Amino acid sequence: MPRVETLERPVKAPPRQRGRSSARGKKAPPPQDRLSQRTLFLRRVKRSLKPGLWILGATAVLVVGAELVRTLPGAKPHPAPPADAMLAAAPPAPAPVEQPGLLAEALAAIGFRIHHIEIHGAATIDPRALSAAVDVKAGDPTFGMSLARIQQRVDALGPVRDATVERILPGTLVVDITERDVYAIWQTIQNGQPIFQLIDKNGDVIADQNAAAAKRRQPSLLLLSGADAPQQASTLIPELKAQPSVYAHVAAAERVDGLRWNLILKNHTVVKLPDGDEAAALAQLTKLQASMQLLDRPVEAIDLRQPGRLVVLPYTLPPPPPPPGKAPVKRQEGQ
Questions:
Q1: Could you tell me the superkingdom of the organism this chain comes from (predicted)?
Q2: Which range is most confident: 12-26, 100-114, 266-280?
Q3: What CATH number is associated with residue 161?
Q4: Do residue 211 and residue 295 come from a single domain?
Q5: List of residues 6+ apart from 220 with CB closer than 8 A
Q6: For the ranges 37-41, 79-83, 215-219, 252-256, which has the lowest average pLDDT?
Q7: What is the CATH number of the domain that holds 276?
Q8: Given a cut of 50, is residue 196 above it in pLDDT?
Q9: The pLDDT of residue 17 is above 90
């Protein structure tokens, strides 16, 4: 029999898969760690706080804006009641001290504090009285005050005609003051003592002012006397200023019986003006001064009370002294 030889066929290797080889060539990514519960919680809280922070910021802006609008120096405070009503009423309770709110304190903590206080126009006001009226010091919260109340207290000071109070962020307080113009000095008698007070053009007394200091600042201020002198000054003084040569000699003016004026000159001569039509009498006096220097002459009085007539009263001469070497004869008692 023929010999049968068994030939072993080589076993073919399975075809190589490209996908597996490429996968083996690349490094597999590490498995991701799972976030902890704390991290997830903080992320949720952070996301939920974002709308709240926006709302809180918008609310703070609205509150600050409302506070600024409320305290703008536009509205004037209500006028104070008359003095008689204040005296008749019971003494008011002391005003409560202003306390800054929580928002003012919170804003102060981030820098909204008063660092500068600027006051303009206070030339004759007592600094202590003005400081007490403003009642703000460095370091106070910028929003811890009422501008309207500060303005009301400053307006109440005697020399103040008008005041404006404003704040400039972050920490400046500005007070602008317009003082009342001094028109004349009014002399009255109280308890036998002369009292000198300043008046304005309307005849109102300017309280808390030093008349002597005002006279030093304005030497041309006229001294007035008489019950109704302040109310009549706005008529006399312009007529005097219209006659400069006469006005330069006048030191004071006295209101007589509520009807007319006496002018006291610097050389103590008394000029008696008529009841009404002072302008014509002063014009006549100007002509006399130009022609004969009447106001410079040592006379006791110049009477202009009668229209078209001038009466000059000279000083009474003292008796002549005795001749030298002769002593005056003394009369003995009983003669």
A1: Bacteria
A2: 266-280
A3: 3.10.20.310
A4: yes
A5: none
A6: 79-83
A7: 3.40.50.11690
A8: yes
A9: no
d(CA 7, CA 287): 166
**150 shares its domain with 203:** no
> Hey, what amino acid is at 161?
R
Structure confidence at residue 88 (pLDDT): 35
Domain extent for 308: 184-314
Tokens 């996301």 correspond to what residue?
47
Same domain, 57 and 117: yes
What is the chain's mean pLDDT, rounded?
A: 78
Given a contact cutoff of 8 angstroms between Cβ atoms, the answer to whether 163 and 151 are in contact is yes
Q: Is residue 152 part of a domain?
A: yes
CB 285 within 8 A of CB 294: yes
Residues 6+ apart with CB under 8 A from 268: none
> Which of 178, 210, 237 is the C-terminal boundary of a domain?
178
- What residue type is assigned to position 255 of the chain? R
Q: Is-contact 223 185, C-beta < 8 A?
A: yes
Q: Which two tokens stand for residue 304?
A: 């202009």
Please indicate, yes or no, if residue 330 is contained in any of the structural domains. Answer: no
Q: Would you say residue 238 lies in a domain?
A: yes
Indicate the residue type of 210. Answer: N
Residue 48 Ramachandran class (φ > 0 left, ψ -120 to 50 alpha, else beta) = alpha
- Number of separate domains in the chain: 2
Residue with tokens 């928002």: 103
Judge if the upstream peptide bond of residue 170 is cis by omega within 30 degrees of 0.
yes
Predicted confidence band at 251 (pLDDT cuts at 50, 70, 90)? very high
Backbone angles phi, psi at 237, to 5 degrees: -60, -45
* Measured distance CA(157)–CA(32) in Å, rounded: 78
For residue 142, pLDDT over 80 is answered with yes
* CA–centroid distance for 181 within its chain: 14
Helix, strand, coil shares of the chain as percentages rounded to 5? Answer: 35, 20, 45
Does 161 share its domain with 216?
Answer: no
**166 plus 67 within the same structural domain:** yes
Domain contains 3: no
